[in-house]
Amino acid sequence: MILVSNHGEIIGGGERSLLTLLKGLDRSFLNPILVVPSEGRVAAGCRASGIEAYAIPLPGLRRPSPKILRSVWALVRLIQKTGAVLLHANGSRAMFYAGVAGRLCRRPVIWHLRLLDQDPSLDWLLARLATRSIAISQPVRARLTRWPRAHNNCTVVPNGIDLTAFVSSKDPETVRISLGLRPCDRIIGTVGRLVAFKGQRYLLEAFSLVRQCYPAITLLVVGDGPERGTLERDSHRLGISDHVRFTGHREDVADLLSVMEIFVLPSLAEHFGRVLLEAMAMKLPIVATDAGGVPEVVENNVTGLLIPPADPAGLAKAISELLGDPSRARVMGAAGRGRAEQHFEFRMHARRVEAIYAEALQEL
To answer: Is CATH 3.40.50.11260 the right assignment for the domain spanning 163-343?
Structure first.
């Protein structure tokens, strides 16, 4: 089987979820081979797990180019060389190349949809090329509503997580010291790319309200992106800059989660919210917006509190409720861990995907 990835670098949850899937696949069922558009951390991660990886450029599709045809033929040759019986495309651009090569070689193709965003110029074609589709949430599946056959052939399979990977390797006090935090500081935080749709600006506004009742509180903003400068200026404008830590991109996410009391996801739109699984694995109660696929991950009033997007006052109220009731917060955190174990464990996720592979292979 050949998996084709949109990206060679890990730029978000989609690439991490792909690597988690590869880790969970039953190698006695299919031998996975990865295709990436360029060398990078995705290919390196696969090779470290004993999975073959090939770099084949996947040029953008907005402008006609002979490079597109060359890449399709390179993928066709790889299918013939490896004897691959199935293709799995992780993303839309990957789906175009896998779909065309699959048609030429008469191989079934799985399209893994990870984004809410529709692409009217391309989705109609990809929907026709896909033998089966996988969506990470119901709102993502709705992207195919206009094409009844493709919609009916699309199965929702939530992302999976390797729970054993989310154990802090450091003592929480050591982490606190490294961040310049005092033992008495209470910590809430968020993790994600600093982009507008992630809604961190509303979290900063909410945090300024929370500090009126809980002055000994610090906010960790973990991640980097184009909005960082704007968010840092917002923290100064709101008078909270001394109590907000912008950590930049970090690989030691589990260590940072280990010092948080509450995890907050203030997104305006969310395809799924993989980072929620990471917080749940660390037994953190969640405060999040009910955007996109989030309600399929967080059970309101059980594993966390859900509020409407772009509502700083609502965020502040929910955060304050959990800060004021540590016992309730602990119960929610434990329930979140249990939910992650029951519904999102990565081997369970892989078995669901393998069942879709089996259905597609029956059409050979």
So the answer is: no
